[in-house]
Amino acid sequence: MKKLFFAFVSAAVLASTGAAMAATDYNKPPAGDSQYAACIKASNENYTGGNDKSLIKGQTMAQAYCTCVWNETPEDFKGSLARFAETPKGKSTKALCEKHSGWES
Q: Could you give the CA distance from residue 51 to residue 48 in angstroms, rounded to a whole number?
């Protein structure tokens, strides 16, 4: 019984730390990426606090948010990341990325 309990606790701890680490494991958008740059610009123009520190070390809230949205959209996505996040289809991505950046509304 003790072995089963220990295995369960170990699995739970590993799962929770893996989920916490995944939140900061987003790929950095390539330098000069136009979608990412447009997302930063739109975020700073349309929302307050974009230049404040985010939950992600070394990133502003706008940078962390747009990095998340950039990573969460499909590879072949060609539109505006900021506009996508405002659509019904992008609603869950927006919520995830607001939480990721600490920019929850």
A: 8
pLDDT single digits (tens) 26-51: 999 999 999 999 999 999 998 899 99
60-70: b (≥16 Cβ within 10 Å) or e: bbbbbbbbbbb
Domain interval for residue 13: 2-101
Give the three-class secondary structure for 53: strand
- Taking the chain, what is the end-to-end CA distance rounded to the nearest angstrom? 45
How far apart (Å, rounded) are the C-alpha atoms in residues 31 and 26? 15
pLDDT band, very low/low/confident/very high, at 71 (cuts 50, 70, 90): very high
| pTM, full prediction | 0.75
